[in-house]
């Protein structure tokens, strides 16, 4: 069974239930990055948005129009009924939006759970819905050397860590304009960042013609 089917079939509800009690406005590295760069998206999509917690902040702080996709039935129902957020029940490999619908697409810490055979399709879909000169935000685990680890919460599921920026940066039409690495463990006791305990926020600017020298 594919991981996306397992998440669509209930594992994503479990993620939502485990994390729903977190306080409402924890630090948000993606929102911080947008502030740092002075970016105010007009229309932002988050992929793997859970109940739209980040989307609510983006809407409030930048006055953006926001949408999300998320496999969890419970998270989507909560986002719609309680917060009136435009959230669709879907997975990253098939986005229910027209081409060039958004000027900012956030990969919201879900790539590490996605099936390896879907990565090309996921990149294709994210690129398709992002307008030219839009921004692709990659927020996920990072590892120099690709590694996979057993997912803590369910046997048979893998967490995959790699440099997800490379899904787009092979293309000269994408250029990185912002990068921050952080430590994933929240323990204050850890003094060195383990090689596979990093998360990154990277902002890539899409500009399909401008990555080429004219000769
Ligand atoms: C670690 S949580 C991140 C939630 C939120 N974006 C955040 O940053 O707090 C990963 C989310 O990705 C969702 N997810 C899992 N597989 C997915 C897939 N194939 N496509 C899209 N989202 C997926 C999970 O249901 C979960 O809500």
Q: What spatial order of strands do you see in the largest sheet?
A: 3-2-1-4-5-9-8
Structural class: alpha/beta
Spatial separation of the terminal alpha carbons: 50 Å
Residue-averaged pLDDT = 92
Give the bound compounds: S-adenosylmethionine
Low-confidence stretches: 187-192
**The CATH homologous superfamily:** Vaccinia Virus protein VP39
The residue fraction in helices comes out at 25-40%
Tell me the β content: 25-35%
The total of beta strands comes to 9
- At the first level of CATH, the class is Alpha Beta
CATH architecture, by name, is 3-Layer(aba) Sandwich
Rg over CA atoms: 17 Å
Q: How many structurally independent domains?
A: 1
Q: Which sequence of SSEs, written as H and E, runs from N to C?
A: HHEHEHEEHEEEHEE
Largest sheet: 7 strands, mixed
What is the helix tally? 6
Secondary-structure map with pairings?
Layout lengths: L2 H17 L9 H8 L6 E5 L5 H10 L2 E6 L2 H11 L2 E4 L12 E7 L10 H11 E13 L4 E4 L7 E4 L4 H4 L4 E10 L14 E9 L9
Parallel strand pairs: 1-2, 1-4, 2-3, 4-5
Antiparallel strand pairs: 5-9, 6-7, 8-9
The structure holds S-adenosylmethionine.
What's this entry about, in short?
The chain is of the alpha/beta class. The chain has helices spanning 3-19, 29-36, 53-62, 73-83, 119-129, 166-169; strands spanning 43-47, 65-70, 86-89, 102-108, 130-142, 147-150, 158-161, 174-183, 198-206. Mean pLDDT is 92; it is low at 187-192.
Would you give an account of this structure?
The protein has helices spanning 3-19, 29-36, 53-62, 73-83, 119-129, 166-169; strands at residues 43-47, 65-70, 86-89, 102-108, 130-142, 147-150, 158-161, 174-183, 198-206. With 215 residues, the chain is α/β, with parallel strands linked by helices. The protein has one domain (3-206): Vaccinia Virus protein VP39 (Rossmann fold, 3-Layer(aba) Sandwich), CATH 3.40.50.150. A seven-stranded mixed β-sheet has the order 3-2-1-4-5-9-8. Strands 6-7 form a two-stranded antiparallel ribbon. The chain starts with a helix and ends in a 9-residue tail after the last strand. The structure holds S-adenosylmethionine. The site of S-adenosylmethionine has 19 residues, from α1.
